[in-house]
Amino acid sequence: MKKQIAISVIGAFFLTAGAALATGAEWRDQQAPYDFVFGNHLDTHQQTKVMPDGELKGFLYIEFTGEYTADGYPIAQHTDCFDELADCTVGWSLKGVPGHASFVYHESGDHPLWQVHSRDDIPQPGGYSHFHWLDGPAMAGDLMEGMMYHGYFLELTAKDTFVFRHGSEEILVTPGLDLATHLNLVSAFPGTTDPGGGGDDGHTH
Predict the structure, then answer these.
(1) How far is 113 from 145, CA to CA, in rounded Å?
(2) CA angle, 201 as apex, 200 and 203 as ends, to 5°?
(3) How far apart are CA 73 and CA 40, in angstroms?
(4) Is the distance from CB of 91 to CB of 159 less than 8 angstroms?
(5) Phi, psi of 56 (to 5 degrees)
(6) Which residues pair with 3 in a beta bridge?
(7) Comparing C-alpha atoms, which of 58, 60, 62, 59 is closest to residue 87?
C-alpha cells in the first residue's frame, strides 16, 4: 500500500513538472538562469538566458485583460511584469540570434521598423521576424533614424490561442510559429539608401 502511494506521489510530481514545462517558465523577476537583459523596455516582459553558442532562449510574457472578442477568444497584451499587481503568463517561447539592423522609423503604438542590410542577415533556418536592440535608449521613440543597432533577431512560438492587442491592432494567435504579431523587418524602404549599392537587378516582384 505504501509503495503504491509513493508511486502515485512521484507520478503526480512528474505530471505537475511536465505541465509547468509545457506552459513555460513563471515570471520570477529575471532570476537566474533566465537573467539576460536587453537593457531597455523589453525587459519588463521577457525572461531569457544566453546559451553556450551565444543564442538566446526564453519567454515573452503577456497579461490577459479579462476581455473577450466576439468569437470568444481571450484578449492579452504586454505589461510590466515587475508590477506586483501584474498577472503575467507566457505568451511565446523565443529564440534569439545576435545581429544588427538599421532603425527606420517608429509609429506610436507599433513596433519600431528595422531594415536589414541584406536578406542574408536574417538567420536561417527558422522564422525570425522580429529585431530588438540592445541597451539604450529605453524606449523606441528615442531611437535615431538611420543608425545601426546591435541586438537580436527573435523567433517566437506561441504557447496558446488568444488575441494579442498591440496598439490599435488585435491579432489572433494560435499555437506554433508566429510570424505576424511582432513583425518589424524590411530589406528595403522608400527614402533609404540601398545597402547593397546597386539596383533591383531586374526584380519586379
Answers:
(1) 10
(2) 70
(3) 31
(4) yes
(5) -105, 145
(6) none
(7) 62
C-alpha distances out from residue 15 to 19, 21, 159, 190, Å: 6, 10, 18, 53
Q: 58 with 93: CB under 8 angstroms?
A: yes
pLDDT tens string, the chain, 205 residues long: the values are: 444 444 343 343 333 333 333 456 899 999 999 999 999 999 999 999 999 999 999 999 999 999 999 999 999 999 999 999 999 999 999 999 999 999 999 988 889 999 999 899 999 999 999 999 999 999 999 999 999 999 999 999 999 999 999 988 999 999 999 999 999 999 976 665 444 444 444 444 4
Rounded to 5 degrees, what are φ and ψ at 17?
-65, -40
**Cα–Cα distance measured from residue 112 to residue 116, given in angstroms and rounded to the nearest whole number:** 13
Q: What is the pLDDT of residue 198?
A: 43
Q: How far apart are CA 179 and CA 110, in angstroms?
A: 15
Cell of 148: 545601426
What are the two backbone dihedrals, phi and then psi, of residue 106, each rounded to the nearest 5 degrees?
Answer: -135, 125
Do residues 69 and 103 touch, judged by C-beta distance below 8 A?
A: no
Centre a 10 Å sphere on the Cβ of residue 150 and count the other Cβ atoms it contains: 11
The span from the CA of 161 to the CA of 170, in Å, is 13
In this prediction the pTM is: 0.81
Place of cell 527558422: 126
